[in-house]
Structures are given as C-alpha cells and as structure tokens.
Amino acid sequence: MKSWWIKFRISTALDSGKPLPASLRQKIAADPELERFAHRTQALGRPLRSPPPVNPSLHDSIMRAVRASAQRGQPRRAPGLSWLPASATLAALVVVCLWMSRPNPAPPERPSLDGPLMALEMSEQMPAAMPSMVMAPLSNEWARVNHDVQETTQILLASFP
Question: Against a cut of 0.70, is the pTM above it?
C-alpha cells in the first residue's frame, strides 16, 4: 500500500513539473522498484509535454478531405416530397385540436360519503365511550364473582351450628 502511495506522489510531482521533494528522492534512491518507476514515468512524460510539430500541408489536406466528405454526405431531396413533412405536421395539429375540442363526458357519480362520515363522527365520541366499552365485560364478570362469593358465604354460615 505504501508503494502505491509513493508511486502516486512521484507521478503527481512529475506532472506538476516541480522538482521532487527530498524525502521522495531518498525513498526512490533506497528502492530499485521506485527508481525504475520514476525513470519510466519521466520517459513517458517528456514526449507528452512537448507536442510534435504540425505540418501545415498535412492539416490542409485533412481539412479538405473532411469538407469533401461532408458535402458528399448530404443527400439531395426529391423536389416533389418537400411538402410531406409540412402536411404531416398540419394533420397532427388538426387531430390534436379536434381531440381537445370534443365535449368531455359527465364525470361518474361519486359514491356517498355517509359511511366515512359516520365513522368520523364515531371517532369523536370514542374517548368518552371507550372506557365503558372496554370495562363492561370486566365489570360484568366482577359482579358475577361478587355474587358467587356472597352465596358461598351464606352457604358456609348456614352450615355452622
């Protein structure tokens, strides 16, 4: 990992055109692989910094060939078919206008909101009605337990002399 980082630092230092820092030169001198990498990078970078000279006649001949191919590439239209795109556009415009001007059918009758309205009204009454609704089964059961205890007490008291 260190080797890759050092190679990256060598590459960026050579790309900037500045001399290599002293610490980087010491690491290159100590490692033959880094030294080979630095020399190869410098050798590859030199030709890229100075572009090759351009021959003006070569440039002119290339541009002539490009212009000639551009002129040959443009197809000639038949004079009788020049009205075709305009008429197709006009026909599409007429169809869109007719479609937009047609009368819209009446919207379907919406379902009644009585059910949801009733549920909404019930939800407003829930905080007051909920405790009695939840406690009613427990209250009934508790009343039965109390009744059973009272009867059991009477039976037990009646059995003692």
Answer: no
